[in-house]
Amino acid sequence: MFEDLKAIFNKKNTQVPQPHIPEKFYSSPEKSKAKTVIISIVNQKGGCGKTTTSINLSSCLAKKGFKVLMIDLDAQAHASFGIGINVDNLIYSVYDILVSNLESERVIIPTYIKNLDIIPAVSLLTGAQLKIADLSEREGLLRTAIYRTLKTQIKSYDYIIIDCSPSLNLLTINGLVAAQSVLVPIQTHYFSLEGMKELFSTIELVRERLNSQLEILGILPTLFDSRAKMNKDILQQIKDYFKDKVFSTVIRRTIKLAEASLNKKSIFEYAPKSHGAEDYLALTEDVILLTRPDSINAQ
Ligand SMILES: Nc1ncnc2c1ncn2[C@@H]1O[C@H](COP(=O)(O)OP(=O)(O)OP(=O)(O)O)[C@@H](O)[C@H]1O
Ligand SMILES: [Mg+2]
Fold this sequence. Notes:
Blueprint: H1 2-10, H2 29-32, E1 37-41, H3 50-63, E2 68-73, H4 78-82, H5 94-100, E3 109-110, E4 116-119, H6 128-132, H7 141-152, E5 159-164, H8 170-178, E6 181-187, H9 193-209, E7 215-222, H10 229-242, H11 255-262, H12 267-270, H13 275-291
Parallel strand pairs: 1-5, 1-6, 2-4, 2-5, 6-7
Antiparallel strand pairs: 3-4
Helix pairs in contact: 1-9, 3-13, 7-8
The protein binds adenosine-5'-triphosphate and magnesium ion.
């Protein structure tokens, strides 16, 4: 399976370009000084851990003292629910930013975690795509809103984490255009050649046409069960193919992570001693090292 993917990416003059993962990203002092690091969590495969990663990475960064904004860009609103937002009572959501050009400052709400704010989603977001489809700036609406907010300095953030939907639709494109980098969770019990091909060509297309600074932060293996041979085999294949672009941290499968979301808590409140907390802490440290290496010693 991975051999096929490798062949596609390595084929010359193919329509599917080589995934652009520049070595420089990891050590660029310019990048590490960027005021706000914006990361989109993307994979059109459903249920691979995007939202669980968004919530727990955002929470851990906030607990380490960074100012964090999580943006829920999925009509399922799981990130909003999972961090304790009652979406039925919301006046505004990310929908209003995209469709009505509302200032994000008016949509941002604090979560129960210190230093962690959220721009929540509502189910209405499904209709946003149709409403913005004819706008000339349709792919850059979220980026414009974020930059406008950061410029006013009413709110400032060290990290913005964008939770995307399981689709490469116009909303996800807005997530990719707004971000500097992409974190791709891949579950270790299923691998789709076609899915990866489509994902990387979309990222490449966005990079070429809409956001030249977009880069791959890393591939994150998720839902890993060390007792299952198939999980081990797929993890090895992921490492063989993506090599050092795979985070050294692997997120293990643990019921505590699922329970934490259902209880509207991050894993650090729900089960701070669990494998889930251990893994997401390690991932957060990997992310800080890649994006703000200077601050790792200051922790
Ligand atoms: N490491 C894990 N161990 C056990 N359960 C997990 C783990 N990660 C995620 N889950 C559970 O798996 C389900 C899917 O996870 P999650 O919602 O994070 O995926 P997703 O990629 O955001 O899904 P979607 O594509 O629908 O947005 C959820 O019920 C979640 O609680
Ligand atoms: Mg999700």
